[in-house]
Amino acid sequence: MIILGLTGSIGMGKSTTAQMFIEEGVPVHDADAAVHRLYAGEAAPLIEAAFPGTVEDGVVDRAKLAEAVIGNPEAIKKLEAVIHPLVKADADRFLEENRQKGTPVVVLDIPLLFEKGNRHRVDKVVVVTAPADVQRERVLARPGMSEKKFEGILALQTPDEEKRKQADFIVETGYGLEHARTAVREILRQLKR
To answer: Where do the annotations place ATP binding (predicted)?
Structure first.
């Protein structure tokens, strides 16, 4: 089984690209979706213990948690120590299920693949990218996003240029959906050689 690591900085089109892999029949483990599930389940009491007042009715309030950690490297490390092992365990279950099924290719959608030293977990890396102005426009259009929050997130991420240098495959999303879909199909074609 080939494990593709899908990554890209905020606003680059990673979620849309992940959906394209799904449409091509490739199972995708989405780390962000796993975090959402965990925030409404087993991670909630752990996060409330670490960051009191960030959980409401058994579910992590993402806005309150963001207030508690953004711009605070120690708080971010504390949060990562809680959530990263749970997300990894979730991904490991996904991989094992697909190994047992004989799935030829799977995708691990890992937003911070390079930043958190996850390169060793995958066979090949797909980096999703777009021009900086397109990225900025996409991110600032998100509800609750500010210039300050965007800059704070970018500061935690490996620069796009560096990610592209380390990629096995690149999907450019700034040229429209069909261009990106063609790139996804070409990646899968190359892997089947």
So the answer is: 11-16
> Quick one: 33-102 is in which CATH superfamily?
P-loop containing nucleotide triphosphate hydrolases (3.40.50.300)
d(CA 149, CA 70): 8
> Is 11 labeled as ligand-binding?
yes
Quick: pLDDT tens for 80-128. Answer: 999 999 999 999 999 999 999 999 999 999 888 898 888 999 999 999 9
Annotated ligand binding at 12? The verdict is yes
CATH architecture label of 1-27+105-188: 3-Layer(aba) Sandwich (3.40)
Q: Helices 62-69 & 73-101, crossing angle to 10 degrees?
A: 130
Given a cut of 70, is residue 193 above it in pLDDT? Answer: no
Is 7 among the annotated ligand-binding positions?
no
> Three-state secondary structure along 83-94?
HHHHHHHHHHHH
Q: What is the dihedral of CA 170, 175, 178, 183, to 10 degrees?
A: -10
163 annotated as a binding-site residue: no
The response to whether 16 counts as a known ligand-binding position is yes
Q: Please state the pTM of the whole predicted model.
A: 0.86
